[in-house]
Specification:
single chain, 2 domains, 4-stranded mixed β-sheet
Protein backbone atom coordinates (compact mmCIF):
# COMPACT_ATOMS: atom_id res chain seq x y z
CA UNK A 1 0.00 0.00 0.00
CA UNK A 2 1.30 3.48 -0.89
CA UNK A 3 2.36 5.66 2.02
CA UNK A 4 2.22 8.88 0.00
CA UNK A 5 -0.55 11.44 0.14
CA UNK A 6 -3.07 11.47 -2.70
CA UNK A 7 -4.11 14.68 -4.41
CA UNK A 8 -7.36 14.59 -6.34
CA UNK A 9 -7.76 17.37 -8.88
CA UNK A 10 -8.66 18.43 -12.40
CA UNK A 11 -5.55 19.37 -14.40
CA UNK A 12 -7.37 22.34 -15.99
CA UNK A 13 -8.41 23.91 -12.70
CA UNK A 14 -6.29 26.68 -11.24
CA UNK A 15 -7.52 25.80 -7.76
CA UNK A 16 -6.26 22.25 -8.22
CA UNK A 17 -3.00 23.25 -9.86
CA UNK A 18 -2.03 25.57 -7.01
CA UNK A 19 -2.09 22.51 -4.71
CA UNK A 20 -0.10 20.38 -7.15
CA UNK A 21 2.48 23.14 -7.64
CA UNK A 22 2.89 23.67 -3.89
CA UNK A 23 3.46 19.97 -3.27
CA UNK A 24 5.91 19.76 -6.17
CA UNK A 25 7.82 22.88 -5.12
CA UNK A 26 8.22 21.48 -1.61
CA UNK A 27 9.34 18.11 -3.03
CA UNK A 28 6.58 16.26 -1.22
CA UNK A 29 5.73 12.61 -1.76
CA UNK A 30 2.30 12.53 -3.37
CA UNK A 31 0.27 10.76 -6.01
CA UNK A 32 -1.89 12.80 -8.39
CA UNK A 33 -5.34 11.46 -9.27
CA UNK A 34 -6.88 13.37 -12.16
CA UNK A 35 -10.61 13.95 -11.73
CA UNK A 36 -12.57 15.27 -14.71
CA UNK A 37 -14.99 17.82 -13.29
CA UNK A 38 -16.68 18.34 -16.63
CA UNK A 39 -17.66 14.68 -17.00
CA UNK A 40 -19.16 14.53 -13.51
CA UNK A 41 -16.50 12.41 -11.82
CA UNK A 42 -16.73 14.49 -8.63
CA UNK A 43 -20.35 13.28 -8.31
CA UNK A 44 -19.50 9.60 -8.44
CA UNK A 45 -20.22 7.48 -5.37
CA UNK A 46 -16.55 6.67 -5.10
CA UNK A 47 -15.46 10.30 -4.96
CA UNK A 48 -18.33 11.45 -2.74
CA UNK A 49 -17.21 8.86 -0.21
CA UNK A 50 -13.90 10.76 -0.08
CA UNK A 51 -15.30 14.30 -0.15
CA UNK A 52 -19.08 14.56 0.36
CA UNK A 53 -18.94 18.16 -0.93
CA UNK A 54 -18.11 16.75 -4.36
CA UNK A 55 -15.30 19.22 -5.00
CA UNK A 56 -11.66 19.16 -5.97
CA UNK A 57 -8.92 19.70 -5.01
CA UNK A 58 -8.89 17.20 -2.21
CA UNK A 59 -5.97 15.84 -0.19
CA UNK A 60 -6.05 12.37 1.36
CA UNK A 61 -3.24 11.85 3.85
CA UNK A 62 -1.55 8.48 4.43
CA UNK A 63 -3.43 8.23 7.74
CA UNK A 64 -6.75 8.58 5.89
CA UNK A 65 -7.58 12.11 6.96
CA UNK A 66 -9.07 14.27 4.22
CA UNK A 67 -8.64 17.99 3.60
CA UNK A 68 -10.46 20.06 0.97
CA UNK A 69 -10.42 23.68 -0.26
CA UNK A 70 -7.34 24.75 -2.18
CA UNK A 71 -6.05 27.49 0.10
CA UNK A 72 -6.54 25.35 3.20
CA UNK A 73 -4.57 22.53 1.57
CA UNK A 74 -1.63 24.65 0.46
CA UNK A 75 -1.45 26.27 3.90
CA UNK A 76 -1.28 22.84 5.49
CA UNK A 77 1.36 21.61 3.02
CA UNK A 78 3.54 24.70 3.44
CA UNK A 79 3.51 24.82 7.24
CA UNK A 80 7.02 25.56 8.49
CA UNK A 81 8.44 26.39 5.05
CA UNK A 82 9.58 29.64 3.45
CA UNK A 83 6.30 29.84 1.52
CA UNK A 84 4.74 31.19 4.72
CA UNK A 85 6.43 34.32 6.15
CA UNK A 86 7.71 34.21 9.72
CA UNK A 87 6.79 37.83 10.37
CA UNK A 88 3.23 37.96 11.77
CA UNK A 89 2.22 40.99 9.68
CA UNK A 90 3.61 39.54 6.46
CA UNK A 91 1.90 36.25 7.24
CA UNK A 92 -1.41 38.04 7.75
CA UNK A 93 -0.79 39.99 4.52
CA UNK A 94 -0.31 36.71 2.72
CA UNK A 95 -3.68 35.49 3.97
CA UNK A 96 -5.24 38.81 2.98
CA UNK A 97 -4.24 38.20 -0.63
CA UNK A 98 -5.37 34.57 -0.48
CA UNK A 99 -8.82 35.58 0.80
CA UNK A 100 -8.97 38.32 -1.83
CA UNK A 101 -8.12 35.77 -4.54
CA UNK A 102 -11.12 33.62 -3.69
CA UNK A 103 -13.61 36.48 -3.33
CA UNK A 104 -12.46 39.23 -5.71
CA UNK A 105 -10.37 37.49 -8.38
CA UNK A 106 -11.32 33.85 -9.02
CA UNK A 107 -15.10 34.47 -9.28
CA UNK A 108 -14.52 36.73 -12.30
CA UNK A 109 -11.34 35.67 -14.05
CA UNK A 110 -11.80 31.91 -13.61
CA UNK A 111 -15.52 31.98 -14.37
CA UNK A 112 -15.08 34.04 -17.54
CA UNK A 113 -12.29 31.70 -18.64
CA UNK A 114 -14.63 28.74 -18.20
CA UNK A 115 -17.40 30.45 -20.15
CA UNK A 116 -15.14 31.30 -23.10
CA UNK A 117 -12.62 28.47 -23.21
CA UNK A 118 -14.86 25.53 -22.31
CA UNK A 119 -18.40 26.58 -23.10
CA UNK A 120 -17.20 28.54 -26.16
CA UNK A 121 -19.60 31.40 -25.47
CA UNK A 122 -19.26 34.70 -27.31
CA UNK A 123 -18.66 37.95 -25.46
CA UNK A 124 -22.28 38.98 -25.99
CA UNK A 125 -23.43 35.80 -24.20
CA UNK A 126 -21.34 36.37 -21.07
CA UNK A 127 -22.23 38.67 -18.18
CA UNK A 128 -20.21 41.86 -18.91
CA UNK A 129 -19.60 42.30 -15.17
CA UNK A 130 -17.19 39.36 -15.28
CA UNK A 131 -14.87 41.24 -17.65
CA UNK A 132 -15.19 44.52 -15.78
CA UNK A 133 -14.56 43.04 -12.36
CA UNK A 134 -11.80 40.76 -13.62
CA UNK A 135 -9.98 43.73 -15.16
CA UNK A 136 -10.43 45.60 -11.88
CA UNK A 137 -8.80 42.68 -10.03
CA UNK A 138 -5.88 42.67 -12.45
CA UNK A 139 -5.57 46.41 -11.94
CA UNK A 140 -5.29 45.94 -8.18
CA UNK A 141 -2.49 43.45 -8.73
CA UNK A 142 -0.82 45.75 -11.27
CA UNK A 143 -0.59 48.53 -8.69
CA UNK A 144 0.64 46.20 -5.97
CA UNK A 145 3.42 44.96 -8.26
CA UNK A 146 4.44 48.42 -9.38
CA UNK A 147 7.57 48.45 -7.23
CA UNK A 148 7.91 44.89 -5.96
CA UNK A 149 8.71 41.48 -7.44
CA UNK A 150 6.23 39.44 -5.40
CA UNK A 151 2.98 40.16 -3.62
CA UNK A 152 4.15 40.03 0.00
CA UNK A 153 7.81 39.22 0.57
CA UNK A 154 11.04 39.34 -1.44
CA UNK A 155 10.37 35.76 -2.53
CA UNK A 156 7.26 33.80 -3.50
CA UNK A 157 4.75 32.98 -0.79
CA UNK A 158 1.45 31.13 -0.88
CA UNK A 159 -0.16 34.39 -1.97
CA UNK A 160 1.78 34.26 -5.23
CA UNK A 161 0.94 30.60 -5.84
CA UNK A 162 -2.75 31.19 -5.08
CA UNK A 163 -3.01 34.13 -7.45
CA UNK A 164 -0.79 33.00 -10.30
CA UNK A 165 -2.95 29.92 -10.94
CA UNK A 166 -5.78 31.67 -12.77
CA UNK A 167 -3.93 34.90 -13.61
CA UNK A 168 -1.46 33.13 -15.92
CA UNK A 169 -4.43 31.77 -17.91
CA UNK A 170 -6.54 34.93 -17.85
CA UNK A 171 -6.12 35.39 -21.60
CA UNK A 172 -8.30 32.30 -22.09
CA UNK A 173 -11.06 34.35 -20.49
CA UNK A 174 -10.53 37.27 -22.86
CA UNK A 175 -8.36 39.38 -20.56
CA UNK A 176 -5.48 41.15 -22.31
CA UNK A 177 -2.46 40.80 -20.06
CA UNK A 178 -0.51 43.18 -22.28
CA UNK A 179 -2.48 45.89 -20.47
CA UNK A 180 -0.93 44.76 -17.17
CA UNK A 181 2.80 44.61 -17.73
CA UNK A 182 3.71 44.40 -14.04
CA UNK A 183 1.42 41.40 -13.73
CA UNK A 184 3.00 39.77 -16.79
CA UNK A 185 6.47 40.24 -15.31
CA UNK A 186 5.31 38.79 -12.00
CA UNK A 187 3.83 35.72 -13.74
CA UNK A 188 7.17 35.09 -15.44
CA UNK A 189 9.02 35.38 -12.11
CA UNK A 190 6.66 33.03 -10.30
CA UNK A 191 6.74 30.53 -13.16
CA UNK A 192 10.53 30.54 -13.03
CA UNK A 193 10.70 30.23 -9.22
CA UNK A 194 8.24 27.32 -9.21
CA UNK A 195 9.58 25.70 -12.38
CA UNK A 196 6.18 25.75 -14.09
CA UNK A 197 5.36 24.72 -17.62
CA UNK A 198 3.75 27.85 -19.15
CA UNK A 199 1.12 25.72 -20.92
CA UNK A 200 0.11 23.54 -17.97
CA UNK A 201 -3.59 23.76 -17.21
CA UNK A 202 -4.59 25.57 -20.39
CA UNK A 203 -7.70 24.52 -22.27
CA UNK A 204 -6.00 25.34 -25.57
CA UNK A 205 -3.16 22.94 -24.74
CA UNK A 206 -5.52 19.96 -24.62
Amino acid sequence: MSTSSILYGDHRSGNCLKVKWTAHYLDMDYAWRDIDILSGQTRSEEFLAINPAGQVPCLVRPDGRVLAQSNAIITFLAEGTDLIPNDPFDRAKMFEWMFWEQYSHEPYIAVRRFQKAYRQLGDDEIDPELLARGRRALGVMEMRLLSRDFLVADRPTLADIALVAYTRMADEGGFDLDEFLNVRGWIARVDQELGLDPDEGRFDAE
